[in-house]
Amino acid sequence: QVQLVESGGGLVQPGGSLRLSCAASGSIFSINAMGWYRQAPGKQRELVAAITSVGSTNYADSVKGRFTISRDNAKNTVYLQMNSLKPEDTAVYYCNFERVRTTPWGRGGDYWGQGTQVTVSS
Questions:
Q1: Strands 109-112 and 116-120
Q2: Could you write out the DSSP letters of every residue in 55-80?
């Protein structure tokens, strides 16, 4: 059974930094893309950043130049380094792993983390 465990959220002042982590537990053969999404109160969940299995990245326009996504395949972990945080970055952040295969012949499945609150406020 695959589970994603997030950590690193919290309260930070505007201009500050946070680093989110999301690690997959269980017997894992491979993971396709990894991503971070966020959902603010009253808004839809939106993609923040994503990284493919070969390291190609994609960012929402609102976070370009401030956030950096990275992954450690040996640890089945994805990170989101968030710098120059703004109040509008306040949201619950969720990690998502696509096509997580536990065997070489399996089709794999998509998994979500439990969410971690990021609050940017003075």
A1: unpaired
A2: --EEE-GGGTTTEEEEEETTTTEEEE
Residue from 69, 67, 63, 57 nearest 95 by CA: 69
- C-alpha separations of 52 from 76, 90, 103, 107 in Å: 13, 25, 19, 17
Say what the pLDDT of residue 106 is. 87
CA angle at 75 for the pair 72 and 81, rounded to the nearest 5° = 45
pLDDT attached to residue 80: 98
Sequential DSSP letters for 86-99: -GGG-EEEEEEEEE
What's the confidence (pLDDT) of residue 88?
97
- Which residue stretches of the chain have pLDDT < 70? none
> Encoding tokens for residue 49?
């950043």
